[in-house]
Every structure is written in structure tokens, then in C-alpha cells.
Amino acid sequence: MSAGNGRLAGTTALITGAARGLGARIAKRMSEEGARVVINDLSLAAARATADELGGEAVACDVSDSAAVAAMFEEAVSLVGDLDILVCNAGISGIEGDNAARQRIAERAEALARGEQPEDTLDGGIAGVTDEQWRRMLAVHMDGTFYCCREAVKLMRPRNRGSIITMGSIMGTFGRGGGTAYCAAKAGILGFTRALAHEVAAYDVRVNAIAPGWIRTDMTDPLKPLHPMLEMQTPMGRIGEPDDIAWAAVYLASDEAKFVTGQTLSPNGGWYMSQ
To answer: Contact 101/123 with Cβ under 8 angstroms?
Structure first.
């Protein structure tokens, strides 16, 4: 649905990786606030299912493919016209479809919850990261963010308006042993966001990042045994929900944040507090 009023009334938004999870929730809240949404996913059928629920449009694309991203933006413009908002949400954990890896992570989480200290790190450490895994992680997160932002700026800069939201992580701010590839990719996105914000500020195009803390998603599902401990470590006493990220995205996309650029908003319940 696209309401006639709301904080994003009259805008169009492209959200990558939005067929489910955080992306789908962001799209839902933006649609409720009046934006016409374009849902991206690797699967056109999955993207279309979510888009149909929201009265939006669907496009399929692997964001790590430069030519495919350029074609996706052309298609999006043909469907909805000018683009006002881009949310670079597409990402991977690196263990998609690897049930054995998910099981190892779950077992380690259970051991940590019992107060034990397993010797291995969550993904086997840097020695266990293959060239292909490293490159794929950076390709989806870093290359994908770069390709999408490049196309968005081409559309937004001549119009002197636009909001770009990238997706970092608290893991990109302080790091975690056993997650070198993921942490590097997310840290790179945060640096890229600040640089791009400087570059396009004069054109009234805003660029900000969201760095989620521990959020209940499919990606964090193997860590469920750790949730009670994480809740105790979090000053607000709970794990985050997808809406905690979705409403942050709505804020950054809206005129309420019209003087906000180059910033990282980290909904994490106080688990990590930056200066």
C-alpha cells in the first residue's frame, strides 16, 4: 500500500535484498509512510510476492554484478519514475545454505551460553576463510553498495535531492574474531558512506548508514542460545526486532533527517556505545 500522506508521501524507494527479513520490514514501513516501493531480490518471484503485498514493484538483480545493477536501475525508473530513496540492504552472512556451518555456530553458541570457551572461532578463523569466501563477502556488501550508490547518485544529483541509506553493522565498528570477512565488509561500507556523503552533500543528497546491533533475524537464528546472555549485556535488556531497524530507515529517509548526512545510526539497545 502507498498512503497519500505520511512521512514519505510522494516518494519512491528502491530497497535491495527486500523480499524478506530486514529489507521486507523496511519496505513495509516505508510503504505505510507513503513511499512507492521497488523490491529487489535475487529471485524475481520472491521480490514480486513482497511487492504485491505492498502495492509496489519488483526487480531481480545480483547486486555484485555491475551491469545487472545498471539495468536494474533503468528498469526501476521505467516502473516508478524518479528515485528518491535507496536502501542498500542486500547482504550475506557467508553461511547461506551451509547447514553444517550453521550447526557449528549453534553448537558454539550453546557452549558459550554454558560458560565454556570453545577453542575455535565462529567460522574457523582467518585460516579457514577461502579466497572465494572473502571475495564473495566483499562483492555482495562492498561492490553491491558501490554499484547501487553510483547509479542512484546519477539519478539524484541532477534533481538536487535524495536519501541513500547503507547497511553496516556493529561488527563493522569494533570487529569480532572469526568474522574477518564480514567485519571488513561492514567497516568498509561505513567508511564509504562518510566519503560519499561529503561528495554529494552540495547537491542535497544525503547518505547515512544504519549499523544494527543484535536483531532477531534468520541470520542471527543460530545464535539463539546466546540471546539470554546478550539480553543481560544490553542496557535496554532485550534483543532488537526488525522494526527497530525499519523505523530508523524511515527516519533517515524522511525530511525529519534533512540536516543529517554522513552519520551512522546504530540501533543496538546500548550494547555498543560510540563516542
So the answer is: yes
Note the helical H segments in the chain: 21-32, 44-54, 66-80, 99-113, 131-138, 144-156, 171-174, 180-200, 227-233, 242-253
Catalytic residue among 147, 182, 251, 272: 182
Closest by CA position to 28, among listed 53, 5, 6, 64: 53
| Beta-bridge partner residues of 206 | 163
Which residues touch 140 (CB under 8 Å, ≥6 apart)?
A: 63, 64, 90, 91, 92, 185
Pairing of strands 162-167, 205-210: parallel
pLDDT at 138 over 90: yes
Report how far apart, in Å, the C-alpha atoms of 93 and of each of 65, 102, 120 are: 18, 10, 18
The kind and range of the H/E element at 209 are strand 205-210
- pTM to 2 decimals? 0.89
Please give the pLDDT value at position 94: 55
Has 182 been annotated as catalytic? yes
pLDDT average, residue stretch 28-42: 98
Taken in order of first residue, the domains within the chain and their CATH numbers are 12-265 (3.40.50.720)
Residues 14/83, Cβ–Cβ less than 8 Å: yes
Q: Are the CB atoms for 11 and 3 separated by under 8 Å?
A: no
